[in-house]
Amino acid sequence: MRIKAQLIPQRTRGNISIVGSYRDKKTDKEVFLLSSGKKVVSTIDEKERIYQYTFEAGYPVSFNFDTDDFQDKTVIEFWKNHPLVKTDGYANPNLVSEQFVFEIKEEKVRVEYDALLDKLHCVSIISSMDDNERKDLCFSLGSDPRNMSPKEVMLHLIGLTLNGIGIAKRDQVQLFDKIKGIEKEAMIYANKAVQYNIVGKEGSVYKIAGRTLGTDIDAVKSMIMSDSELFENYIKPEVDKLEESEPKEKELEIPDEIKELLPVESASRKRVARSVK
Fold first, then answer.
1. Cα–Cα separations (whole angstroms), residue 49 to 17, 37, 46, 65
2. Which pLDDT does position 111 carry in this prediction?
3. How many structural domains does the chain have?
4. Cα–Cα–Cα angle for 200, 204, 205, rounded to 5 degrees
5. Phi, psi of 252 (to 5 degrees)
6. Domain of 40, in residue numbers
7. Largest Cα–Cα distance of the chain, in whole Å?
């Protein structure tokens, strides 16, 4: 299959050059791209010249590759593993500085499509929650939704253009959706305790009544989980007391035609989505 690719300089002013040679960390060998730009070798003859190209700022160089051709495949791998080149969706083991982007149209489309599916999966999870779950999710992501209406919470999590905090932190949303029991409760209450200033922060350390809990939320959560007396006799009652005084909002209504479009993953989740009225 023939594909097109571009090597795009990231500098916006002045010229920048790239040289076709580096030591590959995986093989611990020097690799060289010949001046033709069509062949990669591990040893170079004195008569052969190494590829070198000088870019004007903002102007890429274009390539055509045949993915069924062995030499073309080695050139693609050469650029993807060059120390100065970043390729979206690929972890370059040799990367030192992101001075160029290697963009293969077909791979770019695949990466962006996978990212879209990942975001829609996150939308599905959030939309299938009830209002209280969405507020708890906000707390677990480090936000304080106390003064937000259910609609504001939904917008905060998803965003009008899929730019909400839940989309940005969708790995945490998926974790929140999966964990159950005391671990989930501890995650929610730990974040609420911080947002409500029940657990204070002195410098870089979280403390409660002079007792150090750690330097991040995960440490606070671990301490709450390991100390049932702290959780049951102090954290939980204090948080619950503050929440009891808050006015109750009317449950957010999601239109039926939208619920039917949600790519919910299970019958139980679909039942939950349908029950949100």
1. 16, 10, 8, 21
2. 81
3. 2
4. 50
5. -65, 135
6. 2-108
7. 82
Amino acid residing at 57: A
Q: What is the CA radius of gyration of the chain?
A: 26
The CA angle 265-266-268, to the nearest 5 degrees, is 135
* 3-state percent helix, strand, coil for the chain, nearest multiple of 5: 45, 20, 35
Q: Does 101 share its domain with 146?
A: no
For the beta carbon of residue 251, count every other beta carbon within 10 angstroms. 13
**pLDDT tens, position by position, 85-100:** 999 889 999 999 999 9
- The identity of residue 277, as a single letter, is K
Instruction: Name residue, tokens 């035609």.
Output: 257
Would residue 78 be called left, alpha or beta, if left means φ above 0 and alpha means ψ between -120 and 50 degrees?
alpha
pLDDT single digits (tens) 158-175: 999 999 999 999 999 998
Q: Which two tokens stand for residue 2?
A: 């023939």
Task: Please give the Cα distance from 250 to 245 (Å, whole number).
Answer: 16
3-state SS class at 209: coil
Q: Which of 56, 60, 58 is nearest to 16 (CA)?
A: 56
Is residue 67 domain-shared with residue 122, that is, in the same domain? Answer: no
